[in-house]
Amino acid sequence: MFQALLNALGSRNTTTEDAAYDDSLEEQPDDDIVRVTTRNVRRRDPSPEEEARRPTQWVAWRISHAHKHRCREWVAARFPDCTLEQNAKDALLFSASDAAAVVAALAKDEHAARHVHACAAHGGSTARLEDVPGLAEAAYDAAAATAARLRVRGAPGLKEALLKNLPERIQLTPRGASHELVVDAVPATHATYYYVGCAPLAETFVPSTGDAGDVCRAVHKLREAMVRFALPPFRRVVDVGAAPGGWSQVCLEHGAELVVAVDPADLDADVAARVVHVKKRLEDAETLAALREAGGRFDAVLCDANAHPAKMGRALHALRPYLAAGATLVLTLKQPSASTKTAAADTGEVEGALAAGGFRDLRTAWLWANGRKERTLAATYT
Ligand SMILES: C[S@@+](CC[C@H](N)C(=O)[O-])C[C@H]1O[C@@H](n2cnc3c(N)ncnc32)[C@H](O)[C@@H]1O
């Protein structure tokens, strides 16, 4: 019954005898699962050790390519026993000792959660190619026994071949599906396994949407930085590059007494009514005069200006006379260069300039809320 599927997949996998698995799949944004498997995995039978370590619990993420690196960091920091088993287009698959705990932790982390399309704990198993159809059928029957309605997801080539060959009694895309059957290729170290897992859709984590009340999406960068860097509360704040006012809004929400918003652009009217708006650039002489007039002693300087980070790093030096000892700095590093090397050099230059200017405890992170070419730096002024 499944001969066509076996032929199709079997022939794909024997074409790349010499290719070795390349763990830098992050660099290959357009690979789908079958191509990753074909290009990077030498097809051979799993060894007894590989057979022995076949996991039974899995976490399947649907996530944009741009966020995959941050997802891997997040998982590694919290669940070191999780192993990345598959890195496909817009999907990551980890084996885990407690898959439900991973999904529960994600649901509690609002900053990570809002960037994930879906995350599910699966009971599943890996199989050799020839066992895939049998496993898919068994998973379907197990779900059908509880009156479940199953839909099938998988790598395009694999899924289509599988769909064509499943028995007619199996409904593949029923209305109101209750379970999702996932069929993926899993390139374990040099052998190819196929993963077949089933998850109830009701237990699949899907983030709620809606930013009602927020001035703009930039608010999430500051909210996440506050948690990630465990920042103390701010009372007197200079917000550089403040327009339209998201970061100022967050400071006010957290009880700031004074926010001086520095930006030549307009602020949201509600925010403007609650802050001192200096409608100038940071480098303009009037800005420093306004800070002096406001009484100085700021305990936080925030900068999300869309300007070259080295330039902003230098410009921030001018603020030092108005900062209290122990003041917090949060700076978005906008990295205009497409080259990772140049971006790293830029970041190093800013960090050096800040350290020379008396900023200590410098920490830089790629927050979930950062764009692809952004990082966020936190430091303390001493
Ligand atoms: C990404 S927006 C900031 C968003 C803001 N953090 C928020 O939450 O609404 C960047 C802002 O930086 C401002 N900007 C760029 N260069 C600046 C400078 N030298 N001084 C002050 N503001 C600057 C721009 O006018 C722009 O409004």
Brief account:
By secondary structure, the protein is an alpha/beta fold. The chain is built from 14 helices and 14 strands. Helix 1 (about 5-15) packs antiparallel against helix 8 (about 155-165), helix 9 (about 220-230) crosses helix 10 and helix 13 (about 310-315) packs parallel to helix 14.
Helix and strand content put the structural class at: alpha/beta
N- and C-termini, Cα separation: 73 Å
* Architecture (CATH level 2) name of the largest domain: 2-Layer Sandwich
Total strands: the figure is 14
Shape by Cα distribution:
elongated
What amount of the residues lies in strands? 25-35%
Write down the secondary-structure element order: HHHEHEEHHEHEHEEHEHEHEHEHEHEE
Low-confidence stretches: 1-42
Residue-averaged pLDDT? 81
Q: What is the third-level CATH name, the topology of the largest domain?
A: VC0802-like
Largest beta sheet: strand ordering: 2-3-1-4-7-6-5
When the domains are counted, the total is 2
What's the topology here?
Elements: H1 3-13, H2 33-40, H3 48-52, E1 57-63, H4 68-78, E2 83-88, E3 91-95, H5 99-108, H6 110-113, E4 116-127, H7 132-145, E5 150-154, H8 156-165, E6 179-187, E7 192-200, H9 219-228, E8 236-240, H10 246-253, E9 258-262, H11 269-272, E10 276-278, H12 285-293, E11 298-303, H13 309-317, E12 323-334, H14 340-356, E13 359-365, E14 374-381
Parallel strand pairs: 5-6, 8-9, 8-11, 9-10, 11-12
Antiparallel strand pairs: 1-3, 1-4, 2-3, 4-7, 6-7, 12-14, 13-14
Helix pairs in contact: 1-8, 9-10, 13-14
The protein binds S-adenosylmethionine (SAM).
